[in-house]
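User: Predict the structure for this protein chain, please.
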Amino acid sequence: MYTEELVAHLYKRMSLIRRFELRLAEIYHTDAVKSPVHLSVGQEAIAVAACDPLEKDDIVSNTYRCHATYIAKGGDLNAMMAELYGKRTGCAGGKAGSMHLIDMENGILGASAVVGTTIPVATGYAMAMKMEAGTTKKQRVTVAFFGDGGTEEGCFYESLNFASLHQLPIIYLCENNRLAIHTPLEKRWAKDNLCERVKSFGIETHKITDGDVFTIRDTVARAVKQIRQSGKGPVFLECDTYRWLEHVGPRDDHSDHYRDLETYQQWQDNDQIKRLGEMLDEVTRKRLDNEITDEILKAEKFAEESPYPAAEELYAHVYAS
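Assistant: Here is the predicted structure, written as structure tokens:
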């Protein structure tokens, strides 16, 4: 059903994200990385599946857990690693760190560390896209990524209402790992009916519970095609997922007893990277793994050899000029 080319592409992107982050976890305790890191290990399939149907000039909006989406959308890996190292060649000049990655050349809006804040920003960008399409005759699409915690912010519902009212070309994608830091969804939501709530705004919704990378990709692809052809949205996706590591940092925190090992094992058994790797022949898989190794090593070398920002750059980009 799916071509070997597609399987290889999805496998490489997901595996690159995981191996990049696991390498980051290894060096996190050194002085090289200059900011906290929120890792997406276990959640890679959503970012890759959602970004694959997009074109370069489509836009994605990130949360602070933004490494996966940045890589999935084609962000510059060297600039990302340099940013984590606090270097001048970083994607934000070494000033922003892990939680504020940006690469507008590849359609990646600046991420934010404040929960929910990127949702209205993405909605505004979608409004601009709708206005732009009237003159360019090409409808670009925005995809806003956020966690289940982000849906608890008032700006989420304000954005849904505005987007539905103006039929904006935006896909809202909730990566639901059922945790707000350490607090499970069951202790935060009176009822687990997010899609029902979103439907009340007259928005098409889809809920994907099994983390299947192809199901997510196909659902996003249909939504993107629908929006491009009609110029009308929004569409909402809720994708269940599971983060394997702690909320912030590289540690396996299952010994902290706020989530159970049985659920963790179920998601490990359903690992989409392993699944796609088994769909490839050994020669292809090894070639892709070697390419990933080279890309990560080059990014690390680039970051290590890059200079730190000059002192006078402290005052740049503070005021509009």
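The domain at 4-315 is CATH 3.40.50.970 (Rossmann fold).
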